Amino acid sequence: MNKIIQEIQKGRVLVSDGAWGTFLQKKGMQPGECPEEWNISRSDDVFAIAQSYVDAGADMIETNSFGGNYFKLKNYGFESRVFEINKAAAEISRKAAGADRFVLGSVGPTGKLLMMEEVTEDELYNAFKEQSIALEAGGADAIVIETMTDLEEARIAVKAAKENTSCEVICTMTFDKIIGGEYRTMMGISPTEMTEVLVEAGADVIGANCGNGITDMIGIVKEIRQVNATVPVLIHANAGMPHYHDGETSFPESPEDMAARVEEIVAAGANIIGGCCGTTPDHICEVRRVVKSL
Fold it and tell me: Residue 192: what pLDDT?
């Protein structure tokens, strides 16, 4: 099977999947539960989420492993089960993806801050190494390091995945639109800074996830393209910005709203389009419809 980069080089726009966390909650996950442990105890429910995105037409499916690193799992007393939990996550998504779709092994931030000396660079590297190796062992085609705000942590994660697996490595950061219309992560990193550092670190694909609906993601893609015209770009947009009302969180953008901006974000330079918080298989189905028509 062709690798992701090869498919992009052929001129294809690829469709990724959507949100996972809200699905787990709908299936009964309680506050304080470890989402990644469901890969062991409730694998059928996890498989059903992956399958729903396959059925919606996604070309690639993530794994239920966002918080599967040593530091996050230690909060639940599962730090000795990193390999088991991540390998199972990849195996579940691989089963749903079959042979003709890609599996992206999801790797999120550790929650530890280098600048506060809560963790060392070596400790971060080893945590990302351990998780990436396990995801590859379970059948992941690529490692997607996502929702990063600290550029140094992102760089270390890319390095760990590149040096210890044969997977393609994707890295996305989460940006907020600040006064003046510029985009910055919580740590003050711009898309321009991200692009230069992550490409140099060896990332095969870069981009942005979470933090913005698809409209603001267009501006982020344009800034990336001003710096680098060729690196493949992945966007996982929220279904708009969350609204909180009576203890409930909702996202305002319908599948049709998201689909209406797909052509524009492709024109800006995005190569892979999927969803993050608030998106559903219906959103991905609509994205697929537009991509197919391009």
Answer: 98
62: closest CA among 23, 110, 19, 29? 19
Q: What sections of 165-280 are H helices per DSSP?
A: 191-201, 214-227, 255-259, 262-268
pLDDT at position 2, please?
62
pLDDT 10s digits, 36-85: 999 999 999 999 999 999 999 999 999 999 999 999 999 999 999 999 99
Taking alpha carbons only, the member of 282, 261, 263, 269 closest to residue 234 is 269
- Kind and range of the H or E run holding 172: strand 168-173
CA-to-CA dists, residue 229 to 223, 224, 271, 281, angstroms: 10, 8, 12, 31
- CB 108, CB 66: distance < 8 Å: yes
pLDDT surpasses 60 at 232: yes
In angstroms, the CA 71 to CA 82 distance is 10
Calpha distance 235→175 (Å, rounded): 12
The percentage of the chain sitting over the pLDDT mark of 90, rounded to a whole number, equals 93
Q: Which residue do the tokens 């971060």 mark?
A: 124
pTM over cut 0.90: yes
Cβ–Cβ < 8 Å for 273, 245:
no
Alpha helices in the chain (DSSP H): 4-9, 21-26, 38-41, 43-56, 70-74, 82-97, 121-137, 151-164, 191-201, 214-227, 255-259, 262-268, 281-293
The CATH code of domain 4-293 reads 3.20.20.330
Cα separation, 143 vs 124, in Å, equals: 16
Residue in 236, 250, 219 with CA at minimum distance from that of residue 287: 236
Which tokens is 155 given? 């760089």
Closest CA to 152 of 207, 113, 182, 192: 113
Contact assessment for residue 103 and residue 64, using Cβ atoms and an 8 Å cutoff: no
